[in-house]
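Q: Could you fold this chain for me?
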Amino acid sequence: MKVSEKDRVLLGIGTGVLLASSLRVFVAGAYSSLEKTFFYGANFPSALGIVLFVIAAFLVGKISRKAGAAVMVAYALASLLTDATEYTHLIAALAIPVALALVKELDVKYLAIGLVADLSLRVLAVGGEPIDFLHTRVLLAVLVLLGAFALWKEAGTLKKPGFGLYAFAALIELGLIYPNAVLRYSGVTVYYLPQFVAHSFVIALAILAGPYLAKKPGIASLLLVLGAAALFVKPLGLLGLPLALASSMALLENAKGSRFGVIGSVYLFLVATLALGAYVGRDIGLPFMEDNLEALILAASVIYALASYGGSAEVRLPNAKEIAGSLLGPAVVSIIVLALFNAGPTYVEAKKDVLIWSYNVHQGFGPYQGAFNGYELISLLKEQKPDIWAAQEVVGGMIGNGYQDVPLMISAYLGYAYEYKPAVEGTYGIAVFSHWHMKTESELNLESVGQARPAQKVTIDELGLILVNVHMGLSPEERAMQAEELLKFTESEPVAQIIAGDTNAEPDEKAIAILTRDYYDAFEERPPYTFNWGNIDIENIDYILLKKDWPAKVKDYGCLCDVEVSDHRPIWAIIELP
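A: Sure. Below is the predicted structure, expressed as structure tokens.
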């Protein structure tokens, strides 16, 4: 049966969106469910998604195209119904091999159109995960369903993808196709919507330029490795990673000829695990990986280049109409988001009574089922309107949670300025948000036994206020050590009047006794809890502390203990400034 050009375009769009989305959801859901197993002993779904993924990689070359279309439909409908990745990642585990099977037979230019379509959805979600927001969720499902419709009309079985295609998937899942990840990997910690939109076009052009490099695979391989190596010189990553992305697209046709797809699926899982180790390596038995994501991206680039080695494959180049059509999507959504959302901070005049929050947002996840919490977080902040928010576990483009960019979303939707202190890899840490001009005075990672634990000291200019935001460790001994270091940090010039954050320490613990030598708790009476996971793990560990000799007054305080946007609860205090 001859396939029409229209159906090839629809299949390419559906495949690109399916591949990028299912990779994000699979890693996020597996990470969330395994974390729940580790902390709370929950045995389902735990590692089931990983098992299903390897089985699907083995079977994909034996299933019909209609069965592949059915998997696409299932993924689209699941994405439409819920963003609970602990469950939808089980379908994503089946969808990834199907998507790669389609990549094997599609011209690269059609896949490029699909990846740019996924990028457009990311822009429309202003850096959030598309399935977290209704408008982008619907569009994502429609694009995948259109691809499924085109596939359903074709007879025959799917082709089995080999190691090279899984190596390609591993490489793009390391963040090369996400503008916020590229920006933050390259050392840009604070930016706003216009910069994100502009770099999205750089990524789109890199994707579409790939086929033009395909006739020189040797040069493409060299540029791939050099582009990845640019990450070791932070600002150069802004150019190096788009170059690496274009080169990876150029080598894709050569990668289609490789075999050993099941080994490839295991390799993809291992790469994702090592990438998570770059953030929490000491907590999951991979201490050698901590803060070494650059080395992993370089190694994955070398492996993909080797897997793609061997001759020059024939590649159909996109014509001017196809390029223009592909860029129309990001152009239109860019105009929409720049018109509807805040292009930068909206500043207000100084005030006497200031509402201060401390709130750990759980890496962009809700407390249960691995559901993304960007939409819920924005709704909560829009309703409560804190003046200053000290936030912990803030993700700016991390593999474990769909490459969400929480600072960008908050600034775009609500007009907050922010100061971001990544603990590792530029994409996971703490942040202070406000509607006043701010500057970071100093920052550090506290001495830690487990994962990196950051602290930042921020001046809020119009208020003459200096605040320290902190996220401390998991063991009492570690926290006591960190409290001593934190106290020295806060009392070094300029001295902070407020410490806010997730200390992980109960009120009667040594760490709190150390901090309250010179600071006092804004809460005369502690709330019943500030952390609650399903009434199984209940803790009182988040604080707003004020300098004892600072003549400010606590007018009111409280905890939004019924809010379940995160596993923590927002705590707040209204401070009358002197």
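A (continued): The chain has a mean pLDDT of 95.
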